[in-house]
Amino acid sequence: MPYRLATVQYKRYSITSIEKRKDTPNYSSHDIIKRMIKIIAGGKKHPNWLVEATSEYDKRLHKPWNMEWVFMEEEKLNAYLENWPFTGNDFVIIADERGKNISSPEFAHLIDDQFIYSKNIIIIIGGAYGFSENIRNKANFLWSFSKLVFPHQIARLIVAEQIYRANQILSNTSYHHE
After folding, report:
1. 6 and 17 in contact (C-beta within 8 Å)?
2. What gap in Å lies between CA 58 and CA 53, rounded to an integer?
3. CA-based angle 16:22:27, to the nearest 5?
4. What is the pTM of this model?
5. Which residues pair with 13 in a beta bridge?
6. Of 73, 118, 133, 176, most Cβ neighbours within 10 A?
7. pLDDT tens for residues 86-120?
8. CATH architecture of 28-170
9. What stretches of 23-132 show up as alpha helix (H) in DSSP?
10. Alpha-carbon torsion angle 137, 111, 59, 68, nearest 10
């Protein structure tokens, strides 16, 4: 049974509600309060056309999901990642041409699974030269968009759209077609 009756004692009052059980297969990250996906991008800030495009996906994104962008020059990003500032509460995805190519529904479920376990999602997009093997080995997941190589500006747009698409897949909207 995917739902359970929950009674909570608060002072002299009993509050009864129906809660979705977290151990059911159809449990989704949409049942959890605010979820942030942090995207760390190497290189320069977005050019205007890219700001407009990524902002459109951010505006459309159904809450509780939110995107946060952090930009660093490529050298600073590599130095930052060498110290690996992430913890066990972070699920780190690195966009890399040597990574695993997955479908949009697989990406949606990868994100959803991490949210269920209260993981913060960090997606890192490198600059023109990518990352060292040492940094790639520390990531939880290496994600390849395709066998093609894209400039990092286009990779940013792909990430924004795929996050939006994942949100729509998990919301069962008509945006994604199979």
Report:
1. yes
2. 9
3. 115
4. 0.78
5. 10
6. 176
7. 998 999 999 999 999 999 999 999 999 998 887 89
8. 3-Layer(aba) Sandwich (3.40)
9. 48-60, 74-82, 104-116
10. -40
